[in-house]
Specification:
1% helix, 16-stranded antiparallel beta barrel, mainly beta, 61% strand, two-stranded antiparallel sheet, Porin, 379 residues
Length: 379
C-alpha cells in the first residue's frame, strides 16, 4: 500500500445550496482585524480488510491520519493557506510476512509513515480569480514535490465560471522489491490539466462539468507488489508511461433554505485499458435551527480491469504484469453519513465540528470502514 500522492481522503467542505454559490467581491478595504481566517483540524482512522480475492495477496491495512489546514485573508483580495499532514500506516502488503509458504519477506518496510507540508496563495478579482501552490510529502521509500497554478474566469453576473488548473508532481520512488532486494531509486513525473465549467441555472440549481487529463512517466509500478505463478513469485512490471482522462459532471439543487441534493457521474479511461464509471448522490439537510447539518451519501463504482491484470500467471511471463486488485475488475459500493454541529464556540471563537462515518465494499473481497472527526475555528 503506497501512499503516492499528498491528498486528503475526505472532503473539507460540505454541500451548500446552489443559491449560496454566487460570491461577491468585498468592495471596501478591510481592516486587518476584519479579514477572516480559519483553522481546521481533521483526524481520521481507516481500516481495510481483505476477505478473499487473490490467495497469495493480503491487502489488510490500517491508516491513522491528522491534517491541519490554516487559511487567512491577508489583503483585501488575497488569502494565504497552509496545511500539514501526518500518516501512520500498517499494511500487510508492506510488511509481507503474512505467507510463509511463499517465503515473502519485505526487507525493512515493516513500518510506514507519511508527512506532508503545503502552502498556497489565492486572489479574487472582479472577473478573474487565480491561485498558486506548492507541496512536499515524504514517506518510507517515496518522496514527492509538486506545484500547481490555476485561474477562474467569472463572466458578468458571476453565474458562469470557466476554470483551468495545472498540477505538476516530481516524485522519487525507492525500489524495494517484495523479497527485500533494493534496486536504487527511479523518478515518477505527473502532469495534470483540469478544465472546468460551472453554471448557475436557476437560483436553486448549479451545474458543473470538468475534464481532467494526466500524463505520467517514469516508474509507475508499486515496487513491492508481486505476481504469482503456480511455483514462483515475481515482481510487478508496468509500462513507464500512462495517459489518463476523466470526465465529471455534477448537478446541485437547493430545495430551500434548509436542504439540498447533489448527484454526480464520472467516466474514467486510460491507455492501460482500465476504465470506470462512478455515480454518487448526496443529500444535505439542516436541523435544530441550522445548528445540525446531516449529509448522507452513496457512491457506486464499476471498473474494468487494466489489460496487464491477472489474478495468476503462467510462465513464460509477459513483459507487463500486475495482480494489484486496484487495477482489476470490481464493483464497489460506498455509503456514508456526515454530521456537522454548527454555531459552537471555542475559547471565545466561533467553532464548528463534524464527524463522518463511511463504509465501502467491493465484490473482489476488499472492504473498508473509516471515521473522520473535524474541528473548524474561525478567527
Amino acid at each position: 500500500m503506497q501512499l503516492s500522492r499528498f491528498v486528503w481522503i475526505f472532503p473539507l467542505s460540505g454541500l451548500l445550496p446552489a443559491a449560496d454559490q454566487q460570491l461577491e467581491v468585498q468592495p471596501l478595504p478591510l481592516a486587518d482585524s476584519d479579514r477572516p481566517g480559519d483553522l481546521t483540524l481533521k483526524l481520521s482512522a481507516y481500516n481495510q480488510q481483505d476477505n478473499g480475492g487473490i490467495e497469495q495477496v493480503d491487502e489488510d491495512a490500517s491508516v491513522f491520519e491528522a491534517v491541519i489546514l490554516a487559511r487567512k485573508q491577508i489583503t483585501d483580495t488575497g488569502t494565504l493557506s497552509l496545511r500539514a499532514l501526518g500518516d501512520v500506516v500498517s499494511a500487510a502488503s508492506i510488511e509481507r510476512a503474512h505467507n510463509a509458504d511463499w517465503q515473502a519477506q519485505q526487507g525493512g518496510a515493516s513500518g510506514n509513515y507519511r508527512v506532508g507540508l503545503g502552502g498556497g496563495w489565492s486572489e479574487q478579482g472582479d472577473q478573474v480569480d487565480w491561485r498558486i501552490g506548492v507541496q512536499f510529502a515524504a514517506e518510507y521509500a517515496y518522496l514527492s514535490s509538486g506545484a500547481n497554478a490555476g485561474v477562474t474566469w467569472n463572466l458578468p453576473g458571476r453565474n458562469t465560471a470557466l476554470s483551468a488548473d495545472l498540477q505538476v508532481f516530481m516524485d522519487t520512488v525507492d525500489l524495494i522489491r517484495f523479497n527485500g532486494d533494493e534496486e536504487g531509486s527511479e523518478a515518477r513525473d505527473t502532469y495534470t490539466l483540469d478544465l472546468g465549467w460551472q453554471q448557475v441555472l436557476t437560483p436553486y440549481d448549479l451545474l458543473s462539468l470538468s475534464l481532467s487529463h494526466t500524463e505520467q512517466s517514469g516508474f509507475l509500478a508499486t515496487s513491492y507488489n508481486s505476481v504469482f505463478t503456480p511455483t514462483s513469485e515475481y515482481s510487478e512490471e508496468l509500462p513507464d508511461s500512462r495517459s489518463r482522462t476523466a470526465l465529471t459532471t455534477r448537478w446541485r439543487h437547493s430545495f430551500g433554505t434548509d436542504s439540498a441534493g447533489e448527484i454526480g457521474a464520472r467516466y474514467y479511461t486510460d491507455d492501460w485499458g482500465l476504465s470506470a464509471v462512478t455515480l454518487d448522490v448526496r443529500y444535505s439537510h439542516y436541523l435544530l435551527g441550522r445548528r445540525l447539518l446531516l449529509e448522507p451519501t452513496y457512491r457506486l463504482h464499476v471498473q474494468q480491469a487494466a489489460k496487464y491484470y491477472r489474478e495468476s500467471f503462467i510462465e513464460p511471463l509477459s513483459e507487463y504484469r500486475t495482480s494489484d486488485p486496484d487495477l482489476g475488475d470490481f464493483i464497489g459500493h460506498m455509503v456514508g453519513l456526515k454530521a456537522g454541529f454548527l454555531g459552537g464556540s471555542l475559547f471565545g471563537y466561533k467553532a464548528d465540528w463534524d464527524v463522518s462515518l463511511f463504509a465501502y465494499d467491493r465484490d473482489n473481497g476488499l472492504s473498508a470502514f473509516w471515521v473522520i472527526i473535524g474541528q473548524r475555528v474561525e478567527f
